[in-house]
Structure formats: C-alpha cells, structure tokens
Amino acid sequence: MVVKPNDQGAPGPFTKDKFQFDAARDCYICPVGNLLTYRSINRQTGHRNYTITDAKLCRTCAHFSVCTKNWVGRNISRAPLEEIRKTIQDRYVSAAGQAIYARRQSKVEPPFGHIKRNLGVQAFLLRRFAGVRAETAILATCFNITRMMTLVGVGALLPKLRTS
User: Fold this and answer.
1) Is the pLDDT of residue 129 over 90?
2) For position 27, what pLDDT does the model report?
3) Measuring CA to CA, which residue among 74, 70, 76, 89 is closest to residue 7?
4) Taking 80 as the threshold, does the pLDDT of residue 68 lie above it?
5) Which residues lie below 8 Å from residue 152, measured CB to CB, with a gap of 6+?
6) Could you tell me which residues come within 8 angstroms of residue 80 by beta carbon, excluding any fewer than 6 positions away?
7) Does the pLDDT at position 100 exceed 80?
8) Is-contact 47 79, C-beta < 8 A?
C-alpha cells in the first residue's frame, strides 16, 4: 500500500521529526539534548504524551520561542503506530511507490473528484459508521451508473437494466 504522507505544518528546526525517539528508555531527545519523558496517554486516540522533565530547561533554552511558546515546556504526542510512519514515507518516496501512486491517482481519485465537484458532496449528511456507509454506497452507485451511461450509452444501458 502506498499513501501520501500527511505532513503536519511547515518544516522547521524543531518539528517532531527533529526529535529522536529512544524506544529503550521510552522518551524523546530534543535537538539540544534534553529529555521528554512519557507523562500520560490520551484515552480517546491512544496517543502517548511526552513532556520535558523540567520546564526551566525549556524556558532558559536559547531556542525557547522557536521550539515552543508553552510556559510548561515542549510536549510531543506519539501515535500508537508511529514506528511504521517512516516505512510508509520511504515507500511513498521510492520510484516504485511513485509509480503505484501515479496509477492510484488515475484510477482511484477520479471518482472522489466527481462526487465532490460534479455531485457537490462536500461532507456526509449522516453520522456514525452505518449512516456514512449507506451514504457512501448511494454515492458510489450514482457514480457507477453515470460512468456506465458514459461508456455504454443510455440506449444500450436501459435494456440491460430491465432484464436484470
């Protein structure tokens, strides 16, 4: 599977990717060398939160205003499957990944573009998984019928639909 990475914000000297994760000690090491240790877990998302051990270290750092403006120091959130993010990113950047992604853009993306732009669907009207799933099925059916009308023609399509 090849997926375009979801880069969060502009690159900078103190973005999350500049902090090293030490799996053995379960902590992050900032570019200056300070430790961000595990503090809590977000029960809804499963993200682990890491914060600086001593807030004074951040406040007295020369890069304080660039790295963070938080008075209690820098914090980082780590997703449950964060370790596979680098693998997915490397796969996307590779030549083979780019070829696969180019095929995906030509086969998978047009239906979504048609549904969003031509049918004017910008958001789901229903909530919860069952409602969204039903709405997606209706939209996919509309797209498929429209596509068949374009490829086969209405005159040839109607007799086939009547016999089914």
Assistant:
1) yes
2) 95
3) 89
4) yes
5) 160
6) 46, 47, 48
7) yes
8) yes
The more confident residue out of 164 and 35 is: 35
| Position with higher pLDDT, 116 vs 7 | 116
What the block records as the tokens of 49 is: 């939160």
Question: Chain-wide mean pLDDT for the chain?
Answer: 88
Query: One-letter amino acid identity for 72?
Result: V
Residue whose pair of structure tokens reads 């229903």 in the numeric block: 126
Pairing of strands 27-29, 20-22: antiparallel
The side-by-side arrangement of strands in the sheet containing 75-78 is: 20-22, 27-29, 35-41, 48-52, 75-78
Domain boundaries, the chain: 1-107, 108-163
CA dihedral 35, 39, 44, 47 (to 10 degrees): 20
Q: Mean pLDDT, to the nearest integer, of 64-74?
A: 89
For 14-151, strand residue ranges (E) read 20-22, 27-29, 35-41, 48-52, 75-78
| Tokens linked to 152 | 């086969």
